[in-house]
Amino acid sequence: MLIGPMRTGLLAAALLFWSVAANADEAVIERWYTALLNTDRAALSELLTDEARISLTDLGVVQTKQEFIASMDEWESAVAGGQIRHRIAKSEGGVVTVIACYDFPANDMLMQETFALTDNRITATSQAAMAETCDAY
């Protein structure tokens, strides 16, 4: 008769572990978009592993961590006065899919972004446009 309580305990432990992992993933994603909006090179550098690859699918570009951080000068002027809204669409096994609205003064863009996470750091991310407006956000 101990199987019922034991099974319940194991289920509770599994749910707690999943909840902690999901919260950790959510915290990494929140830090990413805050750092991106603020062009915080130090925070972005801390979030990305040294081997991280950033894939801008629509442009056919894959950047190293160093190339991505170096591109922040250009990004800083593009993001000025804008905002980034995001929501996690899926988080499973260290892979997080995000729907993000880049809302800039001159235009907005709806993106799907996927992050591979290990030890609360980003090992890879890819970005692809979903729409030229954020109406579907």
Proportion of residues in helical segments: 40-55%
N-to-C SSE string, H for helix and E for strand: HHEEHHEEEE
Count up the helices.
4
According to CATH, the fold-level topology is Nuclear Transport Factor 2, Chain: A
- State the strand order across the main sheet: 2-1-6-5-4-3
Query: Could you give the count of β-strands?
Result: 6
Main sheet characteristics: 6 strands, mixed
Oligomer: single chain
Provide the β-strand percentage band. 35-45%
Return the structural class: alpha+beta
Distance between the termini: 50 Å
Mean pLDDT: 88
**Named CATH architecture:** Roll
Outline the low-pLDDT stretches.
Answer: 9-21
Cα shape: globular
Rg calc: 18 Å
How many discrete structural domains? 1
Q: Write down the CATH class.
A: Alpha Beta
Give me some keywords for this one.
137 residues, alpha+beta, 6 strands, Nuclear Transport Factor 2, Chain: A
Structure description:
- The chain is α+β, with helices and mostly antiparallel strands and 137 residues long.
- It has a single domain, classed as Roll (Nuclear Transport Factor 2, Chain: A).
- The chain has four helices and six strands; from the N terminus they run H-H-E-E-H-H-E-E-E-E.
- Strands 2-1-6-5-4-3 form a six-stranded mixed sheet.
- Strand 1 and strand 2 form a beta hairpin.
- Helix 1 packs antiparallel against helix 2.
- The radius of gyration is 18 Å and the shape is globular.
- 15% of the residues are buried.
- About 9% of the residues have low confidence.
